Q: What sequence folds into this?
């Protein structure tokens, strides 16, 4: 088992090292010679350690579902550890804690940052930040399955481990071919958004960086003001692609041939309806004198950013009325569709839990009745229902316990800051409320708190189970 795990984790780490080469090339293009050399050293170290685990220690073989969960959990922690090297070697972030936090926020597409002003970073490091989110968006494991045949028949187990709450949506009988098609859509949308952003007031570098962090629902930007300093045209383009990124990529692939698939999909209709409803409430709450469009744009941008867990900002929603702030926290929990790059609980799970609760209420009134939970026309099986309930239980447990522990770490962290920081990290969003609001960063969080939030980011990105199972005996028993 350990040799097979070493094979998979080593391959993923080696892949992460290879991903450091493009940022070095970008740094050379912008004549940042020193940074380019330092990033290449980071790449060489990462690839060497990855190859050691992959080729020397590891052994290829069929993996079980149990090993798939272990491999996914270990791979993401290993990526976050080695991903710190470009920050540390270039001096962009001078502490291990800060670098690990930034890297975890990147690969998990959380977007929380300890960098006060991204505009002061080199071009190479800015692209590395964006690339970590772009890779993490669809999932490094799925990327490996799509491009490298080395994981072989273990692909399905790894995909289930990465998104255990909802079965992988196959477009073809072979999972590897499905993964390739999803990546075609992902790359295509990224390229299209890059072109549209470049037609506005972003330069080509900014367009590439923001397209990568939009499609991954990540939220890392190149400016301290996030998106607020860009034109309305740019903000509308980002709204559109945040919305697309929060929807299922398998649905996008099917809709390329038949757009009616969007209308027929129950979860997509629910996703769009919830977003429209939240936008309407926020618009009514913040509207004032003057033109209507800026208020609508801020409301739609904020609700889309929060619901898709992207984390970009055009306005400080922490300064809005308390009711809107409470709604903002609720959107942090909601998330996008299953099969999207968004974090959170996901609309599929929320819908199923709501329908199950409704069935339980009817069962109380009609104890002899037989009530079946359906999502659209499909019946939700008992095993899926139990999985969703268990996921939600663990999600809320981590939220509550994380809030308590973070609040105990420093007297400077009030309830609003602690709760929103944990909700934001667990939901892979980025900005929260209070000291970690849209106009702030996570520097105010103590080091121990940054490690806690990093753990929650990874747990949230992997949908709880692969990380929780790492700490159970059953996973490691033969």
A:
């Amino acid at each position: 088992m350990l040799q097979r795990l070493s094979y998979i984790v080593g391959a993923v780490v080696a892949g992460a090292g290879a991903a450091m080469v493009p940022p070095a090339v970008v740094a050379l293009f912008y004549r940042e010679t020193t940074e380019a050399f330092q990033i290449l050293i980071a790449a060489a170290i990462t690839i060497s350690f990855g190859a050691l685990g992959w080729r020397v220690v590891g052994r290829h073989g069929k993996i079980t579902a149990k090993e798939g969960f272990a491999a996914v959990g270990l791979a993401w922690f290993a990526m976050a550890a080695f991903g710190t090297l470009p920050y540390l070697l270039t001096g962009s972030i001078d502490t291990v804690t800060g670098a690990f936090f930034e890297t975890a926020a990147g690969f998990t597409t959380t977007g929380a940052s300890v960098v006060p002003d991204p505009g002061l970073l080199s071009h190479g490091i800015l692209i590395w930040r964006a690339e970590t989110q772009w890779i993490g968006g669809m999932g490094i494991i799925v990327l490996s399955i799509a491009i490298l045949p080395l994981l072989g028949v273990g692909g399905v187990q790894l995909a289930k481990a990465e998104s255990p709450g909802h079965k992988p949506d196959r477009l073809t009988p072979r999972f590897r071919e499905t993964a390739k098609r999803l990546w075609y859509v992902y790359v295509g949308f990224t390229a299209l958004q890059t072109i549209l952003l470049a037609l506005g007031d972003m330069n080509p570098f900014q367009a590439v960086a923001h397209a990568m962090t939009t499609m991954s629902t990540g939220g890392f930007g190149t400016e301290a003001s996030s998106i607020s300093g860009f034109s309305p045209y740019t903000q509308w383009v980002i709204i559109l692609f945040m919305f697309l990124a929060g929807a299922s990529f398998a649905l996008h692939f099917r809709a390329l041939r038949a757009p009616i698939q969007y209308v027929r999909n129950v979860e997509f209709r629910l996703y769009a309806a919830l977003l429209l409803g939240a936008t309407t409430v926020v618009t009514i709450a913040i509207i004032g004198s003057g033109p209507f469009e800026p208020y609508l744009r801020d409301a739609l941008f904020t609700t889309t950013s929060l619901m898709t867990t992207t984390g970009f900002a055009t306005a400080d929603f922490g300064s809005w009325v308390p009711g809107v702030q409470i709604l903002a926290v609720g959107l942090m929990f909601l998330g996008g569709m299953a099969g999207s790059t968004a974090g959170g609980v996901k609309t599929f799970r929320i819908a199923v839990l709501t329908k199950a609760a409704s069935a339980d209420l009817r069962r109380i009134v009609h104890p002899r009745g037989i009530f079946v939970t359906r999502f659209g026309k499909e019946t939700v099986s008992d095993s899926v229902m139990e999985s969703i309930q268990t996921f939600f239980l663990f999600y809320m447990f981590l939220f509550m316990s994380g809030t308590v522990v973070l609040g105990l770490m420093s007297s400077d962290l009030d309830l609003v800051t602690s709760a929103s920081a944990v909700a934001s990290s667990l939901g892979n969003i980025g900005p929260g409320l209070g000291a970690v609001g849209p106009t702030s960063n996570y520097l105010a969080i103590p080091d121990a708190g940054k490690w806690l939030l990093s753990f929650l980011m990874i747990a949230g990105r992997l949908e709880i189970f692969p990380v929780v199972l790492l700490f159970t005996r059953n996973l490691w028993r033969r």
About this structure: The first helix runs from residue 2 to 18. Strands lie at 374-375, 378-379. Residues 146-155 have pLDDT under 50 and may be disordered. The longest strand covers residues 374-375.
